[in-house]
Amino acid sequence: MSTDTSERSSTEAAAERTDAFDDETAAELAAEIDALREEVADLRDESGDDETSMVIVATKGTLDMAYPPLILASTAAAFGWNVTVFHTFWGLDILHEEKSKNLKLSAVGNPSMPVPNAVAALPGMDSMATRMMNRKIADNGTATIEELIDVSLDQGVDLQACQMTIELMGYDEDDFYDGVTTGVGAATALQRMTDADVQLLV
Amino acid sequence: MSTEYTVTETLDVKGESCPMPVVKTKGAIDDLSEGDVLEVLATDSGSVSDIAGWAEATDSVELLGQEEDADVFKHYVRRTA
User: Fold this and answer.
1) What predicted TM-score, i.e. pTM, was given to this entire model?
2) Size of interface A-B (CB pairs under 8 A)
3) Catalytic (active site) residue B28
4) Catalytic position from the list B12, B14, B17, B18
5) Cα torsion A146, A152, A155, A160: sign
6) Tens-binned pLDDT, residue by residue, of chain B (81 aa)
7) For the complex shown, is ipTM > 0.85?
8) Is A139 an interface residue toward B (CB < 8 Å)?
């Protein structure tokens, strides 16, 4: 009986020690898991993973190069993305109310033109190429640049005009469409790009 | 082919091309309520892939079906929330 008791007690004692060890390890692990969960939640909040975002840098002001950033921006906005288009150098002309209605296509260096470069370089060829393109745009039911700017702004796309280039080109802030963001620079663009899922240079 | 959907609103984007069918579909669906069905009429053949892709990637909308009838692409999109 006494032997039984001592045997039992030593077994129990061993079991208790194991339980104590397990409890301690489990508690430590649980605490660690909680800490990691918190960290993941914080990171998720920081990265704003619930919303996709895109930043496009638009640097060109020819008719053909004005379309891609605006088409992608307005479509991404329709997907519910948070979209910024940072317009710099000739890309600024896309947001310039007057110039945007008169964007040109270059005939020279454009392999899609039906004439050789030597001919394309002649006076009036750029205007002709532009007229041809504008006619195609109208015939195809393709939106105008102005329409794309309107739908982009309507959907909350942030169209930004680089402040340094506004001054470099001698433009006035009033020259741009209503709703265009001015007073921003490369740092703003970079900061948005850091947080963005998609970054494009056009 | 006749449709089996009860259409709440019809959006006509015939003659318009990318990105307008998708952009205007999004605008029209925003104006509807949960359960409503939007019919989109388009002539842009790219709208078939574009509207399907948009519906797939967008929360709270469901593409019910797409049909082609005499060069007009008909898309049926339901607002689910």
Assistant:
1) 0.78
2) 47
3) no
4) B18
5) negative
6) 455 789 999 999 999 999 999 999 999 999 999 999 999 999 999 999 999 999 999 989 999 999 999 999 999 999 999
7) no
8) no
